[in-house]
Amino acid sequence: MERVLKELFGLDSFRPKQKEIITSILEGKNTLGILPTGSGKSLCYQIPALVLEGTTIVISPLISLMQDQVEALLENNIEAAYINSNMTAKNQAVVEARLRNGELKILYVAPERFNNRTFLNILEQINVPLVAFDEAHCISKWGHDFRPSYQEVIPIIEEKLPNADYIALTATATEDVEENIIELLSINKENIFKTSVKRDNLKLSVDLTFQREQFILKYIAEHKNTPGIIYVSTRKDAEKLGGFLYDNDIDNVIYHAGLKKSEREYNQNAFVSGQKNIIVATNAFGMGIDKRNIRFIIHYNLPGDIESYYQEIGRAGRDGQLSECILLSNSRDVMLQQFFIERSNATEEQKENMRLKLERMIQYNKTTKCLSSFIIKYFNPDEYVENCGMCSNCQREDKTIDITEESKHIIGLINTISLPVEKTIQVLRGEQAENIIHTELPEHPYFGKLSRYQPSDVHHIIDELVMSGYLHLSNDMLSVPLLGNEILEGKTKMHSVPFRRQFKELVNVSTDT
Ligand code: ADP
C-alpha cells in the first residue's frame, strides 16, 4: 500500500483516513469514506484498484470528472480508461475490448452504462474485485443531488458482480444520507471513516445587506486582483450581475448552462488560467474545477441547502490560504428556492425533505451563533466544536455571557432522566402544567432550578449546548453524551452571545468575546 503510494503516485504519506479506508477495502469490507473536497478521496479506491487483481469499476456522475481522473492516472502510467455515450461507437468498442482482455486496472463509467447489454456481458466474464461509487451522496434520495440512475445500478451490480466489494465516497453526507448509503450498499457502521468537514482557512460571513450590488462593488474594489466566484441562482441573474459589474469597470466572465459549450469553455478557462479574476456563475460551474487560489466566494442568492452551499464554498482556498465565503441574500430568494422545489419532479416525500433542508439554510442565514460550528453540526451533530473565532458572528462586537451555571442545571437534569426539549424547559422552570403535576417530576431535585428564566431563554441555552456537543438531541429527546461531563465537573465554561436584554441582566456579563 505504501509502496504503491510512493512508487506509482510519487506521494510521501497518507492524508487523514486514507490509510484506514484503503486497509478496510483490502480486508474485503464494504466501506464508506466521508472526506472534504480536495482531501484525496480518489486515492482511496485507486490504490486498492492497483493492489487487487482485476479491474475496478468506478461509477462517477460527470463525464468531465472522468476525463480528468483518467488523464491523471495515465500520466502515472496506470492502465485506466473511461467509457461513455459521448464517445464514438468505435472508441467505445476499443475500451470494451481492453476491458474484456483484462488490460485495465480502473474503468470509469456513468451509472447509465449499466443499462448497456454489451457492457453487462463483459462484466460477467471478467474479474471485478471492487466497485467504487464516487459522489456517493447521489445514491440517497435524502441527498441534495439524488440521481435515481445511481440507485438503480445497485441490484444490477449485486446480480452481475456478486463477489465485488463496494467503496462509497462523498464530501457531503448528513446523518440520514449516511444511513441510507450504508443500508443500500450493505456497509457496516464500523467501516465508515470520516474526517471533520471543518475548513480552518475559510472565513465565513453572512451579510444581510439590502444593497448587494454595492456590497460586491466595494468588496472587489478592496480586493483588487483577487480571484473569486460570485454565485447566483438563475441564468438571468448571472447575465444581469455580470453586465452590472462590467458597466462598473469590473472585468468578469459569466458561466451558466444556457451558454454555448464553446463560450462556457472559454469563460471557464479564462477564469481558471487567471486571465480573468471574477466569474459570475450559477451552480452549473464548479465541479471538477482545479484552481487552488480562489480567495473569495460570494453568494448573491441564498442556496437551497447547506450541502450545496458547503460544496460551493469548498472551492475556495484549496491552497490552504485564508479565503472568504460571504453569503448575501434577498427575501425573494426563499420563494425562488421554494419554487425550484415545487417545480422539481421529485416525489412528495423528497420535496418535504428539500423543504426541511431549505429551512436549515435559512437558519444558517439567521443564526447569531458561530457559522463554522453550524455547518459542522449540520453534517455531524456529535462532533465537538469550538467557536471558530473568525466568522462574522464570532467577530461581532457583543460581549458574551457566562451560562455555565444554567448549563449545569440542564445537563444535570438530563443526566438523570432523558426528556423532550419542551418538558425539560417545563421541569427546569418548575411549571405547574397538567402534564407535569401528575408525575413524579415535581419531586425531582432539578425542578424549578431555572424558575427565573423565560422558556425562550432555557430553549436558547439548550440549543447552545446541543450545538456545542454537550447535549445530544435525537427524535426530540435530549441525552447527555460523555462530553457533557466536562461542564458538570466544571472543566469547561459555557458562553453565549447575549440574545435578550433581560436575560443579560440575569447572568454575569463576562469579557470573553
Ligand atoms: P477529492 O476527490 O477528495 O476532492 P482528490 O482525490 O481529487 O480529492 O485529491 C485532491 C488532490 O490531493 C490531488 O491533487 C491528489 O493528487 C492530492 N493528494 C491525494 N492524496 C494525497 C496524499 N496522501 N499526499 C499528497 N497529495 C495527495
TrEMBL record:
Pfam families: DEAD (PF00270), Helicase_C (PF00271), HRDC (PF00570), RecQ_Zn_bind (PF16124), RQC (PF09382). SMART domains: DEXDc (SM00487), HELICc (SM00490), HRDC (SM00341), RQC (SM00956). The gene is recQ_2. It comes from Phocicoccus pinnipedialis. The lineage of its organism: Bacteria, Bacillati, Bacillota, Bacilli, Bacillales. GO terms for biological process: DNA recombination; DNA repair; DNA replication; SOS response. One of its GO terms (cellular component) is cytoplasm. The keyword Cell wall biogenesis/degradation does not apply. This is DNA helicase RecQ. Its EC number is 5.6.2.4. PROSITE patterns: HELICASE_ATP_BIND_1, HELICASE_CTER, HRDC. Belongs to the helicase family. RecQ subfamily. CDD domains: DEXHc_RecQ (cd17920). Residues 22-191 form the Helicase ATP-binding domain. Gene3D superfamilies: HRDC domain, P-loop containing nucleotide triphosphate hydrolases, Winged helix-like DNA-binding domain superfamily/Winged helix DNA-binding domain. Its cofactor is Zn(2+); Mg(2+). Residues 211-362 form the Helicase C-terminal domain. Coiled coil: none annotated. It catalyses: Couples ATP hydrolysis with the unwinding of duplex DNA by translocating in the 3'-5' direction. One of its GO terms (molecular function) is hydrolase activity. Keywords: ATP-binding, DNA damage, DNA recombination, DNA repair, DNA-binding, Helicase, Hydrolase, Isomerase, Metal-binding, Nucleotide-binding, Zinc.
